[in-house]
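This protein record is not my work; I was only asked to verify it. Where you disagree with what is written, explain briefly why. This is what I was given:
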Amino acid sequence: MHKLSFSYINHVLISFRIVGGRIDHSHHFNNAHRALVDTLAFEDAVITALGMTRTDDTLMVVTSDHSHVFAFGGYPKRGNPIF
């Protein structure tokens, strides 16, 4: 699920925002598979937005407010699935 936000001035669209917050939620629960699935869904949303705009008059910025890492603690055996 993505949050959508639109900004208008004089009925002209000046900004369009897609927020992929579920990626962050998945990281907080150490769910690598869900984070990856949500990242791919976010990529699809960006690709859709690219198809709805013109590159000659549109600046698209894709960014993140922070990131997470996954750590493997202890001494896991080789071959353990990361998902």
Q: What stands out?
A: The chain has two helices and two strands. The radius of gyration is 17 Å. The chain has a mean pLDDT of 80. Strands lie at 3-9, 12-19.
